[in-house]
Design a protein that fits this description.
Blueprint lengths: L1 H8 L3 H23 L6 H17 L9 H23 L16 H23 L2 H11 L5 H8 L3 H31 L1
């Protein structure tokens, strides 16, 4: 990571390509997990996430307390949650790619898939409505698998604060989802 950051700081033209190659998978994966399967805005969100990553690196807000991948994951999470909030305000629904979903042959399986997708959309909607810092910590831990110490480094908070936000985020999400969808919906998102 340090060599790459030195190359970026010295305006090495190859550094941007290396940065992109190193981070594209985690950026796309994080955005897809939060927003859904390749929505119409997917490429724009990936670009926005990379813009934010570059801006934070040039502004020296990346303090080397975590890996560059963890940092990119956190930035992408923030971008995707902002998009969810924006969709909620604009009432824009991000449709899934019709080619990515094949119709199952078993009607019971089809019903299960529909129920799972509805539950997942409900989780996404509620994540977009939650307190941003709690939702980000919840996603970084449960979806992206970051340890509390990494989250604390990325967010610039103590491990205790990260744990508190995670606990409160979980409780908030479960309260929002209600008794029937709480256990199933929370598992679908993660």
């Amino acid at each position: 990571d340090r060599e790459l950051l030195v190359a970026l700081a010295s305006s090495d033209p190859r550094a941007g390509v290396v940065l992109y190659d190193r981070l594209i998978r985690i950026v796309e994966w994080t955005i897809s997990r939060i927003i859904g399967q390749r929505c119409a805005e997917h490429e724009d969100l990936v670009q926005t996430a990379f813009e934010q990553i570059v801006v934070t690196l040039h502004g020296q807000r990346y303090a080397h307390r975590c890996s560059l991948t963890s940092w990119a994951s956190a930035v992408s999470c923030h971008v995707a949650l902002n998009a969810l909030r924006s969709q909620r305000r604009q009432r824009v629904v991000c449709a899934e790619d019709p080619e990515a979903t094949a119709e199952p042959r078993d009607p019971q399986s089809f019903e299960n898939q529909v129920a799972a997708r509805q539950a997942l959309e409900r989780v996404r909607l509620e994540l977009g409505r939650m307190n941003a810092s709690r939702a980000e910590v919840l996603i970084l831990h449960e979806v992206n698998g970051l340890e509390l110490s990494e989250i604390a480094s990325v967010r610039g908070i103590s491990v205790m604060a990260a744990q508190s936000r995670l606990s409160r985020g979980r409780r908030d999400l479960l309260d929002r989802l209600g008794p029937g969808l709480g256990a199933v919906g929370a598992r679908s998102a993660v």
